[in-house]
């Protein structure tokens, strides 16, 4: 039987701390996988189809080629999601497109996203905010990080539930207007009649 000494205790304590650090490191890596962009996790191409409800414009956007985001396709998305009232466009966060793609996969419904609102200029957002308490003064739409959508042929209520489960940003369900807001900001949810 080994006699307990302070040196043995120090070695055991050091060994335990090393195991704990390794376990915490593994947990941190596993926990961060959910926060990684889609391109770090998946090597298959991603395509989204859109129709803008106000302009009638359509777009099939192969925005991710399996390795990286496609700048030509992202430029087309930026143009389609411009503020249709002013014509101003803004860079749209590719992570927003990843959320849409993952929503489509979760819903198991390969259909067209109907865009109600994408980017909003400061003037448009201020005007909408003055008319409705459902429009945030500092909306993620101003940053190109939000979209209001429907998925053709799919319940907007169910779509909002899928978005909530993803927990990758803001999710608002606007029941009376029949659309879902998703954004890449902080995780939060709301529902308006």
Q: What are the salient characteristics of this protein?
A:
193 residues; alpha/beta; Muramoyl-pentapeptide Carboxypeptidase, domain 2; 2 domains; 6 helices; 40% helix; globular
Structure description:
With 193 residues, the chain is an alpha/beta fold. It has two domains: 33 residues; 155 residues, Muramoyl-pentapeptide Carboxypeptidase, domain 2 (2-Layer Sandwich). 40% of the residues lie in helices and 21% in strands. The protein contains six helices and seven strands, in the order ααββααβαβαβββ. Strands 2-1-3-4-6-5-7 form a seven-stranded mixed β-sheet, covered by helices on one side. Strand 1 and strand 2 form a beta hairpin. Helix 4 packs across helix 6. The chain is globular. The N and C termini lie far apart (73 Å). About 10% of the residues have low confidence.
Calculate the terminal CA-CA distance, rounded to whole Å. Answer: 73 Å
Looking at the overall shape, the CATH architecture of the largest domain is 2-Layer Sandwich
Helix count, per DSSP?
A: 6
Main sheet record: 7 strands, mixed
CATH topology of the largest domain: Muramoyl-pentapeptide Carboxypeptidase, domain 2
The fraction of residues in strands falls at 15-25%
Number of domains: 2
How large, in whole angstroms, is the Cα Rg?
22 Å
Low-confidence runs of at least 5 consecutive residues: 22-41
Strand order of the largest sheet: 2-1-3-4-6-5-7
The CATH class assignment of the largest domain is: Alpha Beta
What structural class results from the helix and strand content? alpha/beta
Q: Determine the mean pLDDT.
A: 85
Per the principal axes of the C-alpha atoms, what is the gross shape? globular
Helix content: 25-40%
Give the assembly state of these chains: single chain
Secondary-structure element order, as H and E? HHEEHHEHEHEEE
Number of strands: 7
